[in-house]
Write a structure and sequence with these properties.
seven-stranded mixed sheet; alpha+beta; single chain; 34% helix; 28 strands; 26 helices
Length: 719
C-alpha cells in the first residue's frame, strides 16, 4: 500500500514540497483507515460518551471511568484481525500485549482481559487451525504477564473463513493521583523510549490492517505481523507501575500502530506541540536499521514517555532495574514534529496535520434488505440436538480453561458464566464484565441486531446483580467501499449507539476495524461490545439451578415466549443449522427498566439462580442450567393446534433481554417485573439431574450427562 495520489497532493500542498520517503511512509500509515478512521469517524458521533462517571472519554489510549471519588478503572479494546489470519499465535498474542500497554499508558495496572473471537465454520480445517493458534497466543501472552482472562466469546460463521476476528478488551485500575494521559505537557521535556529493542517486525502494520486480505496474505504479509515477548511485557508492567508511583511520567503513549512515529507524533499533537527526535538514539536489536525502519517498525513491548529533564536519570535507573532498554530520543518542542537520522532531517511536518489532516471519506451506503421468511420444518428432538451441540452455542470450556483466570486473586465469577465478576476491593464493589457480539443477529439485521448485542451484554451483567456502568466497542466490518457493506456497518453503529444511550451506558472508547474482506467475501458486520457494571459486594447468583433448598423450586421465564403475534426466528442458531431465514425478533419495549429490575431481582436473597436466554434460545439456556445434582421439569404452554414451527419458535427464537430465574419467591418476582416484562412459570427444579421439556404435545427428555456430551463439541474435536 502506498500513499494515494489525492493524499499526496494534500501533503505536497501543506509542505510546499515533495515528502521525503520517511514522511510519505508516515502519512501512508497514519492516514490509513486503521489509524485515521476515514470511513468510520463521520459515523461515530452517534455514540453518547459522556456521563458523571466518565473521567477520560474517547481519543486517548484507554478510557477512564470513576467507581467512586478515589477509585478509577480504565477500559480499552482493540482488534488484531489481519495479523491473526497471517500468524494466529503472534497475531493474537500481540493483540493482548497492545491493549495491556494502552492500559499502562493511562497510569493504570491491568487487572482483567476479555477476548471475543470469530472464526469460519468449525468443521473447516483452516478454521480449527486458526482457533487453536489464536487461543494459544492469547493464553501464552496473558498467562505469562499475569493478567487474568475472565470473559469473552467465541462464534463460528462461514463468512469469517477468509478473515477471522480477534478482539481483546482490558480493564485496568488507577486513581486520580496516578492518572496519566497521552497529551504532551511542556516544551523542553524529554521523550524517553523504554522497553524492548526496536527490530524490523511489524513494518507497515497499520497500512496492512487497512487492506483486504489477499489470497497469498499468509506468506506475503508475514513481515507486517509483530512478534511478542510477554516476559518483557511483564517487566514493562512492573516498571511502569513504579514510574507512575514515583510521579516520573508527564504523559505516555504505547508504541502500537505506526510504531515510534505514530506514538510520538500523536503524543505531541494532542498537546498542540512538536518534537525533535534523533532516530539513531533508539535502542535497536537488529543491525543497520535505516530511518524509516526505526520510525515505523511495530516491535512490541515499548512505551514512549514524556519526562521532565531532572527525572530522566531516575527513569533510566528504574528501566535498568527491570532489565529494560531506555533511550532518551529527543524532546518536546513548540515547533514541528521533526526526526533526524545521523544528522539528516528525514521528517519535518506539523504534528497536528500528520495526525488529524486525513480527509474523511464520503461513501455510498445501501440499506440491507429484510430477509424473507423461510422456516424449515424439523423434528424437535433433532433440532434440539443440533442447536445444543452447535460450536457457536456449545461449551467454550476448551478455550477458557487454557487461560489463567484467577491470577491476581480478584476473580469472583470466572469465564463460562453470563458475566465475570472481579473484586474491586479498593471501592468495595464487584465489577461485572461481559464481552461479545452475535454475527447471526447482525448478519440478519445490522441495526436491530446491534441493538440486541448491547441489550444482551447488559442482560449478562444484570443477571449477576450488577448495574451497567460503561462500555467500549470494537466495530468490525468489511470493505467500506462496497455500498452494501457500508450500509451494514452504518446499521451496527447506529443500533449499538441507540441501545447504549437507552440503557444510560456511555460508550467511552473503542476501536474500528474495516477492510475485513478477502477472496471469500466480507465478514458479517460485527459490533463487539465490552460492557462493565457494578454491584455491592462480589457474590452473584449462579447460572445453574440448585436442588438443595426446601423452597426455590420454581423456574420463571422473564420475557416473551414468542407465541403471540408473529413469532420470529431471524438470527437464530436454529435457522443457521437448517438453512432457514426470517425477520429478527422485536426487542422489549422498555429495555432500561428491564435491566434495572433484573439487577435488583438477581441480587434478592430469594433468587437462587439466574441465566440469560440468548444464543440458541430457551433450549440452550435450559440445557446449561441443569447439572448432575439438579434437573428441570419444564412445560411450555403452546396451543394444542400448534404446528412444529410454533414449537420451534418457542424453543429456539433468540429475542434478547430474556432470563430464566429460579426463586424462592415467584410472586415477589412477578410483582417486581409487573409492567416491565411478562413473567411465565415454566416448571420446577428436581434433584435427579434430568431435563424434561414439554412443548404442547411434544416432550424432549435428557439428562445432564447427555447434555454435557452434546456440549463438548469443541473439546471433543480438538483433543
Amino acid at each position: 500500500m502506498s500513499l494515494a495520489d489525492s493524499d499526496r497532493e494534500l501533503v505536497v500542498e501543506e509542505l510546499d514540497r515533495e515528502p521525503t520517503p520517511a514522511e510519505a511512509a508516515l502519512f501512508e500509515n497514519l492516514w490509513s483507515e486503521h489509524c485515521a478512521y476515514r470511513s468510520s469517524r463521520p459515523l461515530l458521533s452517534a455514540f453518547d460518551s459522556e456521563g458523571e462517571q466518565v473521567v477520560v472519554g474517547p481519543g486517548d489510549d484507554a478510557a477512564v471511568v470513576a467507581l467512586d471519588d478515589e477509585t478509577y478503572i480504565t477500559m480499552g479494546i482493540e482488534s488484531h484481525n489481519h495479523p491473526s489470519y497471517v500468524d494466529p499465535f503472534d497475531g493474537a498474542a500481540t493483540g493482548v500485549g497492545g491493549i495491556v500497554r494502552d492500559t499502562l499508558s493511562m497510569g493504570a495496572y491491568p487487572i482483567a482481559l476479555a477476548d471475543s473471537l470469530y472464526f469460519g465454520e468449525f468443521d473447516a480445517d483452516h478454521s480449527r487451525y486458526l482457533l487453536e493458534g489464536v487461543v494459544e497466543g492469547i493464553s501464552h501472552y496473558g498467562n505469562c504477564i499475569g493478567v487474568p482472562t475472565v470473559a469473552g466469546s467465541a462464534d463460528f460463521h462461514p463468512d469469517y473463513e477468509g478473515n477471522p476476528l480477534v478482539n481483546v478488551a482490558c480493564v485496568g485500575l488507577t486513581n486520580e493521583e496516578r492518572l496519566v494521559t497521552a497529551k504532551a505537557q511542556e516544551p523542553g521535556n524529554k521523550l524517553v523510549l523504554v522497553g524492548n529493542g526496536t527490530g524490523r517486525d511489524g513494518l507497515g502494520g497499520a497500512s496492512f490492517a487497512s487492506e483486504d486480505l489477499a489470497e497469498d496474505a499468509e506468506t506475503e504479509d508475514r513481515p507486517a505481523v509483530q512478534v511478542g515477548d510477554p516476559y518483557t511485557e511483564k517487566l514493562l508492567i512492573e516498571a511502569n507501575e513504579q514510574l507512575v508511583d514515583e510521579g516520573l511520567i508527564e504523559s505516555a503513549r504505547d508504541l502500537g500502530a505506526a510504531g515510534l512515529g505514530g506514538a510520538s507524533s500523536e503524543l505531541v499533537a494532542k498537546g498542540s506541540l512538536g518534537a525533535e527526535i534523533e532516530l539513531e538514539r533508539v535502542h535497536q536489536r537488529e543491525p543497520n536499521m535505516n530511518a524509516l525502519e526505526i520510525l515505523l517498525a511495530e516491535s512490541q513491548e515499548r512505551m514512549c514517555y514524556e519526562v521532565e529533564p531532572e527525572n530522566v536519570d531516575r527513569v533510566a535507573e528504574i528501566a535498568e532495574r527491570f532489565d529494560l532498554g531506555c533511550s532518551v530520543i529527543g524532546e518536546v518542542t513548540e515547533g514541528n514534529y521533526t526526526c533526524t537520522f545521523e544528522g539528516e532531517t528525514v521528517v519535518d511536518v506539523d504534528a497536528y496535520f500528520l495526525g488529524e489532516g486525513a480527509p474523511m471519506n464520503d461513501l455510498p451506503s445501501e440499506e440491507p434488505e429484510q430477509p424473507e421468511t423461510d422456516i424449515p420444518d424439523v423434528d424437535l428432538e433433532e433440532a434440539f440436538d443440533a442447536v445444543v451441540s452447535s460450536p457457536s452455542t456449545a461449551s467454550k470450556r476448551w478455550v477458557y480453561r487454557q487461560y489463567d483466570h484467577e491470577v491476581g486473586v480478584r476473580t469472583s465469577v470466572g469465564p463460562g458464566d453470563d458475566a465475570a465478576i472481579i473484586a474491586i476491593r479498593e471501592a468495595e464493589q464487584g465489577l461485572a464484565i461481559s464481552s461479545g457480539a452475535a454475527p447471526n443477529w447482525t448478519d440478519t439485521a445490522p441495526y436491530e441486531g446491534a441493538r440486541a448485542v448491547a441489550l444482551e451484554n447488559a442482560t449478562n451483567v444484570a443477571a449477576k446483580g450488577a448495574t451497567p456502568l460503561a462500555a467500549v466497542d470494537c466495530l468490525n466490518g468489511g470493505n467500506p467501499e462496497k455500498p452494501d457493506v457500508y450500509g451494514g456497518f452504518t446499521g451496527i453503529v447506529d443500533g449499538l449507539a441507540e441501545m447504549c444511550e437507552t440503557l444510560s451506558t456511555p460508550v467511552v472508547g473503542g476501536n474500528v476495524s474495516l477492510y475485513n474482506d478477502s477472496v471469500a467475501g466480507p465478514i458479517p458486520p460485527t459490533p463487539t461490545l465490552a460492557l462493565v457494571g457494578t454491584k455491592d459486594g462480589y457474590d452473584a447468583p449462579p447460572l445453574s439451578v440448585t436442588a438443595d433448598a426446601d423452597d426455590g423450586a420454581t423456574l420463571l421465564l422473564v420475557g416473551d415466549l414468542g407465541l403471540e403475534g408473529e413469532a420470529r426466528l431471524g438470527g437464530s442458531e436454529y435457522l443457521a443449522q437448517f438453512d432457514g431465514s426470517d425477520r429478527f425478533p422485536a426487542l422489549p419495549d422498555d429495555p432500561a427498566a428491564l435491566i434495572e429490575t433484573l439487577a435488583a431481582v438477581a441480587d434478592d436473597d430469594a433468587t437462587r439462580a439466574v441465566h440469560d436466554v440468548s444464543h440458541g434460545g430457551l433450549a440452550v439456556a435450559l440445557a446449561e442450567m441443569v447439572s448432575d445434582d439438579a434437573g428441570l421439569e419444564v412445560s411450555i404452554p403452546v396451543p394444542e393446534s400448534a404446528d412444529e414451527t410454533v414449537a420451534a419458535a418457542a424453543l429456539f427464537h433468540e429475542q434478547p433481554g430474556r432470563t430464566l430465574i429460579q426463586t424462592d419467591s415467584p410472586d415477589a418476582a412477578r410483582e417486581a417485573f409487573d409492567g416491565v416484562a411478562p413473567v411465565v412459570e415454566l416448571g420446577s427444579v428436581t434433584d435427579d439431574g434430568r431435563l424434561e421439556v414439554t412443548v404442547g404435545d411434544r416432550t424432549i427428555a435428557t439428562d445432564a450427562a447427555a447434555i454435557r456430551e452434546r456440549r463438548e463439541t469443541i473439546e471433543r474435536e480438538l483433543e
